[in-house]
Amino acid sequence: MTVKELVKGIGDINDTYIEEAEETKKGGRGPRFHWVLILAAVLTALLALSAVAVKGNWFGLREMILGPNDAAGSTISLEGFIGTPEYMASQEWQEFLASYDTDGEILQEIGNGIFAPGTSYNFYNVYSQEMADKLDEIAGKYQLKLHTDLVLNLQAEDLFAQVGGDFLGENRSLAAYMYEDGTFHFDGETDLADYGLLDYQFGRCVRGSFTGATLNIGNAADYTQWIYTTRDGITLTLALSPYKGLILADLGDSLVSVNVLAGTEIPQDHVFSSGSLTAEDLERFSDSFRFSVLTPVQEVDADLWQPVPEDTISPEAFYNATGIELDDAQRFYSEFLRDIESGDRLAVIEKIPYPAVVIMPDRTEVRVENALQLMEYYDVIFTDELWDNIMITRYDLERADLFWHDGLVGAANGFIWFGLLEGEGIRVVTVQSESGAAVRPASY
Amino acid sequence: MEDNTIIELYWQRKEEAVTETAAKYGKLCFRIVGNILARHEDCEECVSDTYLKVWNSIPSARPKYFSAFIGRIARNLALDKFAFLNAAKRAQGAAVAFEELEECVSGAASVEDEAEKAHLAQALNRFLATLEKEKRVVFVCRYWRFDSVENIAHRTGYSTGKVKSMLFQLRKKLRAYLESEGIEV
Q1: Beta bridge partners of A366
Q2: Is the pTM here over 0.80, yes or no?
Q3: Contact A191 B173 (CB under 8 A)
């Protein structure tokens, strides 16, 4: 590829990214998502914090390890030390997960469907009633609450407002998310004096709730750990391995962990850091936070959970342009998404008028006379990428970012279009995926 | 004036549409083309051409994001002109950004038809979707709009060193991502 080709390609990126960059100048903020169901991705980020950190054997990493320290590495609980309800719940949940649906058959059967949308289970990657029952049993046994709400993409100032102040100093947070009890997590980065760029993942798990947050640290024997007291008087456990650093703060009402993406043997050109990290670097990094701000845990402002106002659409203009009341359009679209989520494929494709034309990724076209014939092509059109576009344009379970053009209502960044058809009511007229596969009425 | 109102003026073929566009987005257009072209007269010509092209495009287009729509036209026109100008008439910022992007490609022509262009654009969108918003903004500012590193630092609040560092990492990630998508870099 030539630079010119690449520059031209960059010129064709989605308008929303250009608009987003423009908004930054205006101090614009990213969208807040309330109760959206991209939680699998969020949880994956939290649960799958990657590998790697103890010579020494006091109250530290060893007391957080769940299960064996074997070749696959150690997984530690980020919620509590051994003996705490949070630790025991985490251990039991992890044991259950390790033994459940080992061949992935149940998950396969469910496909893209979401189990019990809008419930606490969505925060725990639960996809069957059996898993839901086990989660309830564990939470009940250890008298822990399950999370009920989550806000994504919290900016630093919002985060500070909820936890009692600025605990970051010169460090930066990128798109934090927070649960209703003040448990939060974010990826962050800093320019550490006398070191350079350093990326990290910061988490706080509030006691009394079950989050299921774990971290694979690799071989625990690779770590050197020690006790360090910060300038604001908080005692930390610091741990450093060839590939990772860890900062752990037991604040009584919460456990704070910082997963530092650098270690003693990191090469200079490392993507997440500026190379080898020393114990002194880790101590200076620890001192750059004000952990004391994070305790006691403050009650989260209830306003944080209020539904986000959708883009300012004039209902009158919407009706004039589409012939559909905005509320009716939202209702129709949310029902369509519920059908997709629940895996009710027939209900999904029955919303499309027939005969229809399926356009394949190679641009060949296939005419289908009815829903049953379309069923064969369902997976070609209703892809993960389409779902991603649905999710990032959804405000909550009832409302999404809708717009209009040529009398039709557009959704999911324009990958879904519906409209009022004479004699047929509201119908989905086009669904397409990023691969180019699409379905549309044969009459269009 | 609201974007929808301006667009409506275009649909009604009222010349006021161009005046309102210039009032609202003239600065944006000049900034974009100014990042690519060095001489003021080239920039003025390019911005005028942008208004003409918008006039000819609406209708039938009804852009949802008007600023992105007009910005893209300005960028493309400026890049077309950039290709025909000698080095002295090219803005230094864009030239440096081009050099930076050389790290991501081999230099051999490979994007030959519309399908491949579309594939590349989709891959770039997916790549951008994988990034944190802050990094995405830095990338777009630098390689879509050709803003200087200093300007991006001012806009985002990062140090210039931080911006350079982020861009370096982003270029590495971009190349790896395109390769993983099966795109011949």
Answers
A1: A358
A2: no
A3: no
